[in-house]
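Teaching assistant here, posting this on the class forum so everyone can see the example we discussed in section. The complex has two components, and the goal was to see what a joint structure prediction looks like when all of them are supplied at once.
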Amino acid sequence: MQSVSTIPQAQQRPRVYWMLSDTWELFKRSVIQIRRTPDQVIAGVILQPIFLIITFRYVIGGAIMTGEANYVDFLMPGMLVTNVIQLAAVTLVSIPNDMTSGIVDRFRSLPMEKSAILGGTVLSVAVRCVLGVATMIGVGLLVGFRPQADVAGWLTAVGLLLLVSYAFAWLLAVFGLMAQSVEGAQQMGGFVWPLYFLSSAFVPVESMPPVLRAFANNQPLTPTINAVRALLLDQPVGNHVWITVAWCTGIILVSVPLTGILFRRRFS
Amino acid sequence: MVANIVQTQGLNKTFGKTQVLDNINLNVPQGSVLALLGPNGAGKTTTVRILTTLLPPDSGSVTIAGYDVLREPEKVRSVIGIVGQSISVDGYLSGLQNLMMIGRLYRFSRKDARRRARELIEEFELTEAAHRPAQTYSGGMRRRLDLAASLMAAPPVLFLDEPTTGLDPESRNTAWDVIRNLVRGGTTLLLTTQYLEEADQLADTVAVIDHGRIITNDTPANLKKKLGGERLDIHLTDPADIAKLPLLQARALPTQVQNGAISFAIDEGERGLKEVASILQQLITAEVAVTDYTLQRPTLEEAFLQLVGTKVNNSVIEERK
């Protein structure tokens, strides 16, 4: 055995420091997981978006009247938003996966901040999103997408994409913690699909019957898509940005404490 | 100082309608080894989870190094290490990355975490695999990494939940050596096991647990005495020959003389050797034909039969060789 003198001492720092430090350590862990699973990255971040863009741009798009001169300009912001939410849904699987392995017991038995266990995973969604957004814009440009935004517009749009994916990653973590199994959690992911299609992502909301239009106008993705679209096409943004920020803040404020409650209940 | 570094009083735990722990009282003196011996489902893992802050008890109290598990869980976590039954390292991270992450979560500086991680990687002979993802490790290597992870902060109290279940004999011996080394270094150990031999080899005290109750709590030597040590079974070809052996008949275990089969309780060590020799000598002198003879230790199942008088589910007991 090692002599006692070689055992490192725990550092004394304020609690906030450890919250950030522990989250950073678990964030790094999730990023290593992303690097070690290139198949997932290729399928989810690259192939799926390419397939969807081609389908909507060339197969379905011809039949959709948007009032926009170029349907691909209308389509791409919707694609970006739905894609980052799809990438955020990784928490639906990775969190119940962790819960059923021994690693959460290991973390819980350490003198670390427990909030970092979920926080690190959720934060790593940002890495997937940056990769996904970059791929999508690249493919979009190839198929005729011509964004007009200046640097500030781009930064705001990407910031909104990261914010909405972060909020949904927490929301989906709630579902992941409620699920009894990894398979069950995957099924729960289905609830986001109505949000994709009953939104302004692929068609103008005005074309929908009144009830669906009312739903579409009052769910979080429509203002997000409208904001990103207006920013990238250099159109009047209105208050879409603020409505998006309000929605995301609300989702985070509800979901984060809920994950805490569900996490603790699981181990009592 | 606290004499008993681990102390539990009246632990109860119920899952749904099943009482899994019933009034568990355990005391582990500093620097000693307690083995919690019992079959699957006896309550071993639940006990360990409660003692390591992972699960709250319904009632009862636990102190580790003087800290109350319910009131000061963070203090408790800073003095314990746990090796659970399921592997608790990240399969995507390399061995070194796993240990460094855990070091950082123990609040070590980056430099200290790396140095300590390297030390343990070397000590547990994982140097060549240090940079490979842990999911590529063999079962034995992963267990060693798991143990190394638990030792990052050199905790004074270590909990090992069935540390050798599923290991081949060679890996088991290696694990035992590692455990003995830790004890030599002053670590207090609580380990659970299904193997009588393992408890015998490693523990100062053996607490036998079944259906959530501690049945007996004693030294391995006393426990073996209670269990009767070795047993010699002799099968006579002609059951009537028993009449030629009045002396042996008197010595045999009373319940075990039937159909030509006679059993004898044999002492440990040299005394036992002489006993066996004298019994066999008498058989030879009397010129009695013997079909079969065996010398064996009681299996855990037999031990439980003797201790609890209830039948233990056969499927959960691993037969001893």
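For the discussion questions: DSSP finds twelve helices and no strands in chain A. The radius of gyration of chain A is 21 Å. Think about how each of these relates to the inputs above.
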